[in-house]
Amino acid sequence: GDVIYLMPGVHNTCLPPGDDPQKGGASGGTPHIAYFRSNSSGGAEGNPITIKPLRSPSSQEPVVLGDAPCDGITLLETRHWVVDGIEVRGAGGWGVDLEGCMDCNVSRCVVHDNARLVDGGNPTGVMMRGSSGIVSNSVLFDNFEHPVKDFTRGDGVHIFGEGGGNITIFNNTFLNTKNATDKDGNPMGFGGGTMYKHA
Q1: Which residues, in sequence order, are CB contacts of 175 under 8 Å at separation 6+?
Q2: Residue 52: which residues within 8 A CB-CB, separation 6 or more?
Q3: CA 118 to CA 128: how far, in whole Å?
Q4: What angle do CA 175, 154, 168 make, to 5 degrees?
Q5: Any residues with CB less than 8 A from the CB of 37 and at least 6 apart, and which?
Q6: Which of 163, 162, 122 is nearest to 144 (CA)?
Q7: Adjacent-strand bridge partners of 174
Q8: Strand order across the beta sheet in which 167-170 lies
Q9: How far apart, in whole angstroms, are the C-alpha atoms of residue 47 and residue 195?
Q10: For residue 195, which phi and psi values (nearest 5 degrees)?
Q11: What is the pLDDT of residues 24-72, one digit of tens each?
Q12: Do 196 and 163 touch, CB atoms closer than 8 A?
């Protein structure tokens, strides 16, 4: 039942999580703005660890992760975590990455304009890789590769097989800009809502 509070404002510092010493050591690994890995402990069923904004009764300033050339927030091999009420925008990589998680939920978030630096790597706002969980009551839009690529591709939520299951998506709003153009100014369509790959 622990809560991790994020201070109001825009958080856009990219930090590496560390990696195998042969691959880069402390400076290795894909950089993220927020990164949590807890494969030996975590929340409990019905009593999760929650990441949420710190707000006072007199202030509604949002907590924003993004505006940076890296992933927004990653939960790796965690158990029973919730990302609640955070805006994730303008991350060059995925907005929210849930990898190998069990009962990891995204709730009441606004996830938009992410994945513009992803090239051929499944651009998306919320990536669920081998995970179980819920995406609910959130707004997701314009999470796709930059339109100067060959074609627009990307989704609000991307479910990537890898052994996951028990995924629920409900009560979300998916919006996408329809006027994306290629480098020559030709219309390209727009990103999708959800996608399931390698089911």
Answers
A1: 139, 140, 141, 142
A2: 3, 4, 5, 6, 82, 84, 85, 86
A3: 16
A4: 70
A5: 17, 75, 76, 77, 78
A6: 122
A7: 140
A8: 3-6, 49-53, 79-84, 102-107, 133-136, 167-170
A9: 29
A10: -145, 140
A11: 778 878 899 999 987 666 788 889 999 999 976 666 778 899 999 999 9
A12: no
Token pair belonging to 178: 């329809």
**pLDDT, mean of each 10-residue run, the chain (199 residues):** 91 88 79 85 86 78 90 93 96 94 95 87 91 95 76 86 82 84 68 83
Instruction: Find the farthest-apart pair of alpha carbons in the chain and give their distance in angstroms, rounded.
Output: 52
Q: What is the DSSP letter of 61?
A: P
Return the structure tokens found at 171.
């009560």
Sign of the CA dihedral running 27, 31, 35, 37: negative
The model carries a pTM of 0.90
How far is residue 66 from each of residues 18, 33, 143, 186, measured CA to CA in Å?
A: 20, 7, 13, 28
Q: What's the full length of the chain, in residues? A: 199
Distance of alpha carbon 115 from the chain centroid: 9
The SS3 of residue 94 is coil
Token output for 88:
């994730």
Tokens 């219309």 found at: 187
Report CA 16 to chain centroid distance, whole Å.
16
